[in-house]
Design a protein that fits this description.
368 residues, alpha+beta, Beta-Lactamase, five-stranded antiparallel sheet
């Protein structure tokens, strides 16, 4: 389920990025097409309008009037302004503005952008988007031998382009969803069957490995996962050999140390005394007396031999831990007898810490 959600999330993310890209592409394409179509539509009538401007500066000709009416019927064009070479309004849908000087007209109807002035200066068509509104202002100058004789200013709506963009985006969404299902789902099931499921099996197999069981139970495969499982199996085999080697070395070292303690203490400790040697984990390394039935000195803890009720002895052992290399003396009861006890803790590292506990009769004096 987790991988399915990941797949869906990635698919939606890719669709979103693609949508942003295609939206901007469609917007640029259809907007450019809208601008060029309007400019080309005016250029078709340019010769007639140029002749009218040259023949009559003050009055619009019938041919020009027919052109204005034809352009006014274009749904893309929201409004038109036709200026003569003298800077007077040659045509406007409101008759009261016709013949008005440009300065007076601009005072009453401020232009939405600077398209007219830029077209006049550059003598080229200029397109400006109206800020905050879905319109373009397109100013198209008419010139003869480099002299501006008139300007056609159009306010063009982007509504048609938005409709085309919306239609194209809907097609994109349907297409993207179709691709996601037709190609993505088979790819997901292939990925799940050949990658995710085997990885889950491999994970469970690795989790089943322990210090007591180094066998990796994973079915043989001839792909990359099979190679990975083989590498893990070889690693487990090397670890098993190394751990067994370390364990054997530790066992050999401990057995040698036990023999050393036995040889040393048998010489210096009288038979009437009891002695216990424990390691850093308080496990008994050596004891010169028989332990309880079924006890093995190799696997027995100090508390298994010394009753936890013997607080005096435990306190002495604790003091010896706090003052290493210094002997701590006291009295205690051991094996139902009263003994003097000496405790010595030696060692510089955790691995070499040893504690020697010596029990001897009260009338006997023993050096340590």
């Amino acid at each position: 389920m987790k991988w399915l959600l990941w797949f869906i999330g990635i698919g939606v993310y890719v669709m979103f990025l693609g949508g942003v890209f295609y939206y901007n592409l469609f917007k640029w394409t259809f907007d450019e097409k809208l601008k060029q179509d309007v400019i080309e539509a005016v250029k078709i009538y340019a010769p007639t309008m140029r002749n009218g401007l040259l023949n009559s500066v003050d009055a619009i000709s019938f041919e020009e009037y027919d052109i204005m009416m034809s352009l006014a019927k274009d749904e893309r064009i929201a409004s038109m302004l036709y200026l003569s070479r003298k800077g007077r309004v040659r045509w406007h849908k409101e008759a009261r503005f016709m013949g008005m000087p440009w300065e007076d007209f601009r005072a009453q109807v401020p232009p939405p952008t600077d398209a007219i002035s830029q077209a006049y200066l550059s003598k080229l068509p200029k397109v400006r988007q109206v800020k905050g509104e879905p319109f373009y202002e397109i100013a198209i100058p008419f010139s003869v031998r480099g002299e501006i004789i008139g300007i056609m200013d159009l306010l063009v709506s982007r509504a048609g382009a938005e409709v085309l963009i919306g239609s194209a985006m809907r097609k994109y969404v349907f297409g993207a969803v179709g691709v996601l299902f037709l190609l993505g789902l088979p790819l997901y099931f292939f990925f799940h069957h050949y990658v995710i499921s085997p990885m889950d099996v491999l994970r469970e197999s690795v989790e089943g490995v322990s210090l007591k069981n180094f066998d990796l139970r994973f079915p043989a495969r001839s792909d990359e996962l099979g190679e990975l499982a083989g590498a893990v199996t070889r690693l487990m085999a090397r670890m098993k050999v190394e751990i067994e080697g370390i364990s054997n070395r530790d066992r050999t070292y401990k057995e040698a140390e036990q023999r050393w303690w036995r040889s040393l203490l048998n010489i210096i400790v009288p038979a009437t005394n009891y002695v216990i040697v424990v390691d850093e984990n308080n496990s008994i390394l050596y004891a010169n007396f028989e332990l309880g039935a079924g006890m093995d000195a190799k696997n027995i803890h100090l508390l298994d031999v010394v009753d936890s009720q013997q607080q005096t002895l435990l306190r002495l052992v604790g003091q010896a831990f706090e003052t290493p290399d210094r002997m701590v003396e006291g009295e205690t009861v051991f094996k139902n007898q009263s003994f003097n006890v000496k405790v010595l803790h030696v060692g510089q590292t955790a691995e070499t810490n040893r504690t020697l506990i010596l029990f001897y009769p009260k009338q006997q004096s023993v050096g340590m």
